[in-house]
């Protein structure tokens, strides 16, 4: 029986993360915004007033300003760049100037007018960061009032999305005197506690990327990135069960985007395990129906708990069925009721790949059976989206099933040393 997952700081694993409220989520409730719309500082809920004036006469951060626009960096699993860009286009229509961060395969940058809150609705990136570029030669200069003000503004922009009570640096030399001084100043300006090992709000410092240096120099300056929210975007509070082999949630979200988010779709998650693909699809937008299918009672129980935690078990509640997803007749019989005699429009699956479930030897028959059974229950125009590590096996069965499904170019994803691919197949 799958166990309750202990709290973990981030969605770093193949699965998402704890379903317990993250510390940031708890502190967010304690830190109601002040009357002028700024987040209250820890221990000052409900109070208004400008950030504290520094004891030694310096005025490091005046009233936090709401920048008219922010530069936002989105990090993602390599391979998902175009999916992330498509999600940005769909959910952040005001964003503009999206470009790759030079030298990186896991980050794009964009400009976003107005508040940052819409960034938190993205499901395919790993994390979002407010970027402050400082044209200075060394971090020591961050402490000057005009630079510090910009860092503090970025911290407040993040805090307006979700509260934090502490912060930490991710930077080479973060234990230096310059960073100790900067930590003091940020604390004085925001009230956030500096917790070098486990602070919620992450402040990343790196050499400038791809921008021109200061006038007359080749010095790239520095980027200070403040993470939006106390947890990465990839952290999923709905994941309350630690199911072996559970899919990475941002990959699951990408699969839904690749298959298309269509409100009239009847969605079926074959071999659903703990339901990651189903949950991510249903959270991404409405659907006419949602069904999860697995042979394992433990899997169905895990999916039920995750759907509950995601708030997706209210009517019309997704159905969870025990059935063999490689047997066309059995699958059609199981789905007839929940789909009201209709075919499925979007089918999602990540079949076992032989380490935690199934075996490599059984993989060809399992993948071939999946494509046949999915076709048997697919409506005209249906899409089947499959995530698998069995790349050679899948190439062969997709070729063999060419009369059933037309394959789009697979998307290769890099996740924790694995390189699975996502196939989108269109029903013929
Ligand atoms: C890789 S896991 C799916 C993980 C799932 N996406 C999640 O996030 O938890 C594969 C699942 O396929 C199920 N499975 C294996 N063979 C099956 C079959 N013939 N029909 C239905 N489910 C099957 C296993 O019980 C397992 O839960």
UniProtKB/TrEMBL annotation:
Pfam families documented for this protein: UPF0020
Keywords per UniProt: Methyltransferase, Transferase
Keyword Transferase: yes
Residue ranges of domain Ribosomal RNA large subunit methyltransferase K/L-like methyltransferase in the record: 236-419
Disordered, as annotated region: 1-70
Compositional bias per record (Basic and acidic residues), positions renumbered to this chain: 53-65
Any single biological process term in GO: tRNA methylation
Domain of life: Bacteria
GO MF annotations, alphabetized: nucleic acid binding; tRNA (guanine) methyltransferase activity
Protein name, per record: Putative RNA methylase
Organism: Cellulomonas oligotrophica
Classification of source organism: Bacteria, Bacillati, Actinomycetota, Actinomycetes, Micrococcales
């Amino acid at each position: 029986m799958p166990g309750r997952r202990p709290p973990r700081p981030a969605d770093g694993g193949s699965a998402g993360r704890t379903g317990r409220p993250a510390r940031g989520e708890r502190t967010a409730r304690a830190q109601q915004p002040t009357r002028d719309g700024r987040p209250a500082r820890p221990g000052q809920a409900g109070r208004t007033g400008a950030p504290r004036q520094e004891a030694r006469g310096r005025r490091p951060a005046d009233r936090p300003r709401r920048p008219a626009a922010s530069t936002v960096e989105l990090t993602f699993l390599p391979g998902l760049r175009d999916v992330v860009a498509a999600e940005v286009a769909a959910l952040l229509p005001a964003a503009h100037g999206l470009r790759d961060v030079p030298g990186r395969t896991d980050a794009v940058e964009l400009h976003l007018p107005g508040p940052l809150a819409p960034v938190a609705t993205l499901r395919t990136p790993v994390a979002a960061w407010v970027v402050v570029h400082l044209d200075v030669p060394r971090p020591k200069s961050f402490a000057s009032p005009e630079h510090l003000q910009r860092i503090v503004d970025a911290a407040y922009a993040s805090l307006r999305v979700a509260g934090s009570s502490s912060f930490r640096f991710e930077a080479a030399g973060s234990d230096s005197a310059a960073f100790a001084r900067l930590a003091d100043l940020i604390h004085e300006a925001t009230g956030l506690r500096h917790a070098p090992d486990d602070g919620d709000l992450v402040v990343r410092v790196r050499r400038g990327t791809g921008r021109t240096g200061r006038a007359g120099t080749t010095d790239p300056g520095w980027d200070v990135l403040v993470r939006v929210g106390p947890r990465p975007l990839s952290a999923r509070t709905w994941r309350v069960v630690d199911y072996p082999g559970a899919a990475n949630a941002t990959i699951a979200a990408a699969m839904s985007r690749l298959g298309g988010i269509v409100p009239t779709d009847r969605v079926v998650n074959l071999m659903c395990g703990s339901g990651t693909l189903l949950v991510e699809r249903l959270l991404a937008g409405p659907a006419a129906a949602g069904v999860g299918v697995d042979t394992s009672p433990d899997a169905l129980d895990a999916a039920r708990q995750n759907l509950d935690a995601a708030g997706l078990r209210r009517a019309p509640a997704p159905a969870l069925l025990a059935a063999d997803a490689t047997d066309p007749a059995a699958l059609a019989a199981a789905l007839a009721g929940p789909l009201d005699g209709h075919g499925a429009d979007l089918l999602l699956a990540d079949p076992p790949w032989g380490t935690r479930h199934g075996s490599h030897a059984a993989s060809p028959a399992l993948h071939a059976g999946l494509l046949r059974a999915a076709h048997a229950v697919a409506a005209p125009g249906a899409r089947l989206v499959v995530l698998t590590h069995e790349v050679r096996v899948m190439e062969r069965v997709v070729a063999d099933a060419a009369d059933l499904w037309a394959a789009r170019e697979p998307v290769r994803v890099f996740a924790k040393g694995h390189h699975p691919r996502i196939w989108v197949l269109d029903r013929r």
